[in-house]
Amino acid sequence: MHLIALLIGLVVERLATQLFHLRRLRGLDHFIDAGIRQAARVPNWPALIPIIIVVVLLVLPVFAVVFILGDALLGFPYLLLGIIVLFFSLGPQDIGEDVDEYCKAIEEGDDERIQQTAKAIIESDVPDDARERMHKVEEAVCVQANNRLFAVIFWFVLLGPLGAWAYRVTDLIRRRAVFAATREQEPGSTSEQFGDAAISLHGWLAWVPARLTAIGYAAAGNFDTALGAWRAPTEQSSDLLSEYNEHLLARVGVSALALGDDDDEDFVQRGVRGATAANRLVFRLLLIWAVVIAAMTLYGWTQ
After folding, report:
1. What confidence tens digit (pLDDT) does each residue in 183-222 have?
2. Could you give the CA distance from residue 99 to residue 38 in angstroms, rounded to a whole number?
3. In angstroms, rounded to a whole number, what is the distance separating the alpha carbons of residues 197 and 195?
4. Where are the domains of the chain?
5. Using an 8 Å Cβ cutoff, are 12 and 79 in contact?
């Protein structure tokens, strides 16, 4: 049932692009902020504990619905719930649309839009140097594809709607906690501790999907260069687990692209080609995952 819901959900997600704004789930920000504020009032409380509590509280409604539905009506309500939860767990934005907007901004030479669209992909400060920004976007596409798409699919296959939603919730809390810590800008503050705890929890949940995605990049792209990049780690011993995940996805994904420099290309052409190639790599990997999931579904029906 999980696999069927996943296949249908992926098709619905491709067709319902006009509803992507609903996946931002801004209404949950107030709940997350309130949870962090309440936890800050308890002295000497490990930051990870309140983060986990907030995750559990946000996952409980989905768990309750799953428990109530059970196998009612031959599982059709559960199938519908799975499709809805998957839609809201993916994203929030489609990586392909973000890449398209970025490429259009480059081609039009609109510096302000280039900065905005690049930041939507990188989700951090955008380098001023055009070449550095170009490479950063290519890496970010490979990283964000796992965060927005493949990790959600992994947890949905493993645990159904609860798994996908739990992963999405940890991402929401991570983003909100990091935002709160950025506003305070006080090293060692409570907000920073909660932010680090949220990043760590999200990194744990992304560990296995990140490696499956990296393997997929090698299979969908240039295998030899991707394998070489995997064997040549660039991480530092002080990096967080989430940073290890991102570095792995970035270097393996970009290496799988195997993009060579063309002397006849300018920065506009090279930037569009690189971002488009990264997006195509993600799409090829999604097709591979879809074929594997479809095969698993058919195999399940024959048993």
Report:
1. 665 555 666 788 888 899 999 999 999 999 999 999 999 9
2. 39
3. 5
4. 2-301
5. no
Q: pLDDT tens-digit profile of 36-61? A: 788 777 767 788 888 999 999 999 99
117: how many CB neighbours lie within 10 A of its CB?
23
d(CA 241, CA 248): 11
pLDDT higher than threshold 80 for residue 74: no
Name residue 225's amino acid. Answer: T
Structure tokens at 216: 């997929």
* Measured distance CA(102)–CA(93) in Å, rounded: 13
The Cα-based distances of 31 to 26, 56, 71, 157, 193 in angstroms read: 10, 13, 31, 28, 18
pLDDT of amino acid 303: 43
Alpha carbon distance, N-terminus to C-terminus of the chain: 14
> pTM score, two decimals?
0.91
Tell me the DSSP string of 32-53. Answer: HHHHHHHHHTSTT--THHHHHH
Q: What is the CA radius of gyration of the chain?
A: 20
**What's the pLDDT score for residue 266?**
82
How wide is the angle at C-alpha 120 spanned by C-alphas 237 and 134, nearest 5°? 70
Which pairs from 185-192 meet CB under 8 Å and 24+ separation? 190/40, 190/47, 191/36, 191/40
**Furthest-apart CA pair in the chain: how many Å?**
63
Residue with tokens 């955008």: 126
Sign of the alpha-carbon torsion through 187, 201, 214, 168 = negative
Q: What's phi and psi for 75, nearest 5 deg?
A: 85, 5
Among 101, 219, 81, 197, CA closest to 150: 219
